[in-house]
Amino acid sequence: MKVVILCGGKGTRLREETEYKPKPMVEIGNRPILWHIMKLYAHYGFNDFILCLGYKGDVIKNFFLNYQRLENDVTIDLSTGKTEYHNRHDENWKVTMVDTGPETPKGGRIKMVEKYIDGDEFFLTYGDGVSDVDIGVLLNFHREQGKAVTFTGVHPVSRFATVELTSDGRLMNWKEKRKIEEYINGGFFVVRKSVLTDLSYNQEFEEEPMERLTAGGQVSMYQHEGFWHCMDTFRDFQHLNALWNKGQAPWAVWSS
Fold first, then answer.
1. Measuring CA to CA, which residue among 14, 105, 19, 8 is closest to residue 50?
2. CA 231 to CA 239: how far, in whole Å?
3. For residue range 122-169, what is the model confidence (pLDDT) as tens digits?
4. What is the pLDDT of residue 81?
5. What is the C-alpha to C-alpha distance for residues 180 and 173, in angstroms, rounded to an integer?
6. In whole angstroms, what is the distance from residue 134 CA to residue 106 CA?
7. Range of 105's domain?
């Protein structure tokens, strides 16, 4: 089953890191956040990836084209040209990289990789969010619901302090970085391939297509109560790296 990852955005709110690299290549613990996302799917047995490239997509291509050289110690015999890799930090991944344009909306990016998607359904996610969501449970939920699309609903953490007031305006409590009770779209979709038939190249997937499918009763939400965090700002970058460096990265289920 294919895993489609949207990797084309510019990440303008993370300009400190994205001026010279695409957002999915911003690193957590010396590895791109894209690698972390792929490790999650591979942990659950899904290792056939389609990457929708856009802004500075060549950086992603070069990373995977040179993956063995980057991840292993290397001995090169200059007289023969023979290369020997040590350590063998290789992944059992198949990675299809497709240039979907620097300005293409997400719906268009998905439509452009349709020819590489076999089977009746596929996974879809963003290239900038990590989570400890159980991908196998998500897939089973999607199939039980029988809808065209399932997305993962998550609780974001407020960037600001939240307060509660009494009716007369008296402050009851103050909470910094509180987990918000409402759900938002955290990505980690399961999608029927038939959805792509009505998808056009100039659409944002989350707008008209999702609105239409929801109105038709064809969307379900998988409620994820665990960890989820998007790398949207430099503060997010610092937070995720701090968790990783302390050995407290909840999304690294493959290492547990």
1. 8
2. 9
3. 999 999 999 999 999 999 999 999 999 999 999 987 665 556 666 666
4. 83
5. 15
6. 24
7. 2-154+183-255
Within a domain: 223: yes
Tally of structural domains, the chain: 1
Q: CA 183, CA 16: separation in Å to the nearest integer?
A: 29
Whether 152 contacts 139, CB under 8 Å: no
Place of tokens 């937070």: 239
CATH of the domain at 57: 3.90.550.10
Residue 58 lies in a domain: yes
What residues contact 184, with CB distance under 8 A and at least 6 apart?
153, 154, 155, 156
CA distance 239 to 144: 36
What is the distance between the alpha carbons of residues 27 and 237, in angstroms, rounded to a whole number? 8
Tokens at residue 140, please?
Answer: 């089973």
9-47 burial: b if 16+ Cβ within 10 Å, else e: bbbeebeebbeebbbbbbbbeeebbbbbbbbbbbbbebb
In a domain, 163, yes or no: no
Instruction: Answer yes or no: is 174 within a domain.
Output: no
How many residues make up the chain in this entry?
Answer: 256
